[in-house]
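Exercise 7 asks you to align residues with C-alpha cells for two separate proteins.
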Amino acid sequence: MSKRQRGQSQETAAAKASISERSGRRIEKGERQSIPEERHWRTREDPFEAIWKTELLPLLEKESQLSGLTLWEYLEDEHAGQFPYSVLRTLQRRVKQWKGTQGPDKVVIFRQSVPAGQQGLSDFSHPNTEITLQGKVFTHLLYQFRFAYSGWRYVQIEPPRVSWRLIGLS
C-alpha cells in the first residue's frame, strides 16, 4: 500500500511486496479473503461409536501403549468384517487424540549438551577416614576438579591454613 501511495504502478508495488497483481488490487479495494470457521460437526457417522466406550477404551486404559493398528487387528478378530481397513486411519487418529488428552503422562527429559572442555565442576570435601602424622590428627580438605564431558578428575590435598612447622613437619 505504501508503494501505491507513492505513485508506483500496481504491477511494481505488487512485485516489491511479493504478491500477485490481482491480490494487490483486491487489497487496495479492501476485499479480504475470509477465514473459514472451524467445523464442530461431523461430516460422517462415527464407525467406532458403538464399541469405543465399551471395548476399546477399557483396553487403552488397561494398556496405554496399544496402537491403532493393534486395536484394529483386535476388532478384526472380534468383529470379523465389520470394520474394514479403510477405517484404520480414523481409529489411529482417535487413539492419538485419546493419548494426548486422557492418556498417561509422558516422561519428560531435558537432555543437556556439554561441549568438550567447556564445563568443569569444582568442590572441596572433608574425607571420612582419619589420617594421623606422628600421632597427631591431620585435618585436611580434598579439592576435586572434574570435567563434565570426559569425567577426567584431579584431586589435591589442601591442608588447613596453618604452618607445617606447627604440626611437627619440616
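Second protein for Exercise 7:
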Amino acid sequence: MILCNFVAMLTKTEAIVLRSIKYGESKIIVDMFTRLHGRLSFVVSMPKTSHGRLKKQYFQPLTLLLLDCDVRPQASLQKLREAQLLTPLPSLSSVPEKLAIALFIAEFLYYALRGEQQNEPLFDYVERSLEWLDGCEAHYANFHLVFLMHLSRFLGFYPNLEDSGERRKDSGERREDRGERRENTFYFDLRAGAFCEAAPLHRDYLLPQEAAMVRLMMRMDYPTMHLFRLSRAQRNRCVEVALLFYRLHLPDFPEMRSLEILKTLWG
C-alpha cells in the first residue's frame, strides 16, 4: 500500500491556473485547481523558443487548461506533460476593469482553495463564473460580491437564513412592510454564519445595518446583480465584510494585496 502512493497516475484533467512563480532559470511553479484532483502544484520547464508545446501565456492567472500530467499523491510538485487552452477568456486580460477583478479572484482562490480536494461542483462554479464574466459586456461591477458569497456554499459555510427576518417576511402578513422592518433589526453572527435577534457574546458579529449587506449579497446572482445599485463605498464595504467572513472560516487567510486596486473601480 505504501509503494502505491508513489506510483504516478497518468491523468487528463481540466484545470484553473491560480498562480505561477519563477523557479530557477528556466522553470516555473504553477498552482492550479483541477477538476479531478483538487489543488495541485506543478513544476514546469519553459521552452527557450516559441515553438515549444508549453507556452508561458498558458500559465497566467485564471487561464482554463486541459492537462496531461503525472500525479503522485505524496509529491509536493507534480509533473506536467502537456497543456492546452480549454476555453479562451480574452476579455479578462484586455479589459482593465475585468483584469482587476480577475487578479483579485485569482489571489482569493489561491488562498481559499489551499488543501482543497476534488470538488467538481466547486470547479464547475468557478469555471462557469469566469466564462460568464468574460462574455459579459457591461454591468458587472458587483461580480466579485456574487462570486465570493456563493462560493462559500461549496466550502460549507454559506450563511443560514433560517432564523432571520427573511423567513418571517415570507411567511405571511404584510411582507413588504412588517417583514422588511423586522429583518433590518437582525445581527449577523460571523462565526455561526447565521442571523440572530440579539448580539452574540463574542465580538465577531455585524450590527443590523451591516448584516443587511450580507442579506443583500445573498439575494444577488449574475443575471440580476445589475439591479442592485451600490455606491463605491457600499460595494467596498460589502467585499470587506465578505473577506472578514472568510477569514473566520478559513485558517491563515491573509490580507488581499489586490483588494486596493479593486476598490478604486466604479465611482
